[in-house]
Structure formats: C-alpha cells, structure tokens
Write a structure and sequence with these properties.
Blueprint lengths: L7 H14 L4 H8 L3 H9 L6 H11 L23
C-alpha cells in the first residue's frame, strides 16, 4: 500500500486499514503499543492527537513504514538492469 497523507483523518484511515490488514483487533493493537482500545478507536477516528511515538509503534505493529519525500521532486525511476544493482 502506498498512500499520500494530507490530513489527520487520512492518517486515521490508513492506520485502521493497516490494523485490519495485520489481522488485529483494536484491543490487540492497543496491547501491542501499551494504550487502551478506546485510544486506538480515537486515533482511527481522528489522529490529530497521535504522538510520534504512538505513530511509529503502530506502524511497527502493522508492518508499515513511514517515508518522507519532497512533494515537488519528480518520481524516482530506475531505467537500468537488475545486474547494475
């Protein structure tokens, strides 16, 4: 999954999708990162109060990674062969 995130609501949707793809309930995800199930629910509804530590913990629990890129940079492409790696 590759998503562009512009709002806290979008982050909540991505986290909910990641949790489901990891086959975790909200309660199971909460145990993994040390918060309550209601906190996971609140994060998924609107992640505006999500801490960076919680975000990174959730990404780790769900098998996701966070990447940052320059919005105005052209997309990187690879035109060589695998042998050049």
């Amino acid at each position: 999954m590759r998503q562009t995130i512009a709002t806290s609501h979008q982050m909540g949707e991505i986290l909910a999708a990641g949790r489901r793809r990891a086959s975790l309930t909200q309660a199971e995800a909460a145990v993994r990162i040390g918060v309550s199930q209601s906190r996971i629910s609140a994060i998924e509804a609107d992640s505006g109060t999500l801490t960076l530590n919680q975000l990174l913990a959730l990404f780790g629990a769900y098998g996701l990674q966070l990447q940052a890129e320059d919005r105005d940079a052209p997309a990187e492409t690879f035109s060589g062969s695998a042998a050049e790696w």
